[in-house]
Design goal:
The chain is of the alpha/beta class. The chain has two domains: about 180 residues, no CATH class; about 180 residues, Rossmann fold (3-Layer(aba) Sandwich), CATH 3.40.50.300. The chain has 16 helices and nine strands. The strands form three sheets. It has a five-stranded parallel β-sheet with strand order 6-7-5-8-9, sandwiched between helices. Helix 1 runs parallel beside helix 16 and helix 4 crosses helix 6. The mean pLDDT is about 95.
């Protein structure tokens, strides 16, 4: 594929593989739906390039211009494809409300319920194409535009295209793994399994904010983040009352972030059924989708990681090797979440673990 040349530049290998996997699997799994679209005459002479830059609104009229006239193949497409481009553009401009309104009203006006089944697939496709176009434009400017940038010029056009490309590619990935609705992604697991590292990597891949229970707990307790809690404070900082406050704040911040973000990542052990029940209840109350990831590794790896914390700097978690036995003893496996739980080993590189999570999320989108 043409986009492969941009791997590691404007799109990560994990995002590329996940998006491609989603597109291929969706197309194969919905072959009958695509055939029905043809039989229902949903393939029309459309605009082909319907996004916000090609729409002009005045108090008197609305004008849509600059359709693709030079290539019939790019213009004779599914109506859902044409409208999905505009919906994707609304999402890109952080107007998810308008994107949803557009597709829902269009489905009613065209008496086309199938349009909504295809919306995320076509939005993913359109966002990926825009990412590729922006990447190509950036590549074409390398060595020319950068030499032409004057010292007083604030914006490097090459970097601007690269930033836009990365945003489009991340948007395509989000459609592949979570669709168009907000998602609260929770990364949980026993101490030392690497869940914080995995949560951060997923936040980077998806451009979602990450909220950590360790950070929230220390902030609430007034303990400096990178300093280990003193022994005389630990009973108070890790009391049942403080744990309840921590998880309440964690879930509140995650849900609040969904007002301005397509998703958010929670990083916490969620070691008890009570805390997991609270999480599910709050998501249900807020009408927000929840997906839980349990990170797991071999006990020997956990021991090695906890041992290394004594020599590391900047570690927020207080857990150390001497705490392992007691923390494992109170960990309640999330059996009540099956089959809605994704369990991943985190013994390989974090990029591979994140890729595994993303691929499994995409598979669930296809169900």
């Amino acid at each position: 594929m043409q986009a492969e040349s941009f791997l590691g530049k404007t799109i990560s290998p994990a995002a590329f593989e996940t998006t491609r996997h989603f597109a291929n699997r969706f197309h194969a799994a919905n072959e009958n739906l695509f055939r029905e679209r043809i039989q229902q005459h949903r393939i029309r002479d459309c605009h082909g390039d319907l996004h916000l830059d090609h729409i002009h609104i005045t108090p008197e009229t609305l004008s849509i211009f600059d359709c693709i006239e030079f290539n019939d193949r790019l213009r004779f497409i599914d109506i859902a494809n044409d409208l999905a481009f505009l919906a994707m553009d609304f999402d890109f401009e952080d107007r998810r409300d308008l994107a949803t309104l557009l597709m829902q009203k269009a489905a009613r006006e065209f008496d086309d319920a199938g349009m909504l089944k295809l919306a995320d697939f076509y939005k993913c496709y359109r966002a990926f194409v825009r990412g590729k176009v922006e990447s190509i434009q950036a590549a074409e400017l390398v060595g020319t535009a950068r030499r032409a940038v004057r010292p007083t010029q604030r914006v490097d056009p090459t970097e601007e295209h690269e930033k836009q490309a990365a945003r489009y590619f991340r948007l395509a990935l989000r459609y592949a793994v979570s669709g168009s609705e907000p998602l609260l992604l929770t990364v949980m697991g026993r101490v030392g399994t690497g869940k914080t590292t995995v949560a951060r990597q997923l936040g980077i891949e998806l451009d979602w904010p990450v909220f950590s229970s360790d950070q929230i707990r220390k902030t609430l307790a007034g303990v400096p983040l990178t300093e280990r809690t003193r022994p005389e404070q630990r009973d108070e900082v890790y009391s049942a009352q403080m744990t309840q406050r921590t998880y309440t704040k964690l879930v509140e911040e995650g849900l609040a972030a969904l007002e301005t973000n397509a998703g958010a990542v929670l990083d916490a052990t969620f070691s008890t059924q009570a805390n997991r029940k609270f999480l599910r209840e709050q998501c249900k109350k807020a009408n927000v989708r929840l997906q839980v990831i349990e990170v797991d590794v071999h006990l020997a790896t956990v021991r090695a990681r906890l041992r290394a914390r004594d020599d590391g700097a900047g570690e927020i978690s207080d857990a150390r090797l001497e705490d392992l036995e007691s923390l494992n003893a109170v960990y309640e496996p999330p059996s009540e979440l099956a089959p809605h739980l994704i369990k991943v080993p985190a013994s390989s590189a974090v990029s591979e673990t994140a890729k595994s999570v993303l691929m499994q999320l995409a598979e669930r989108q296809l169900r």
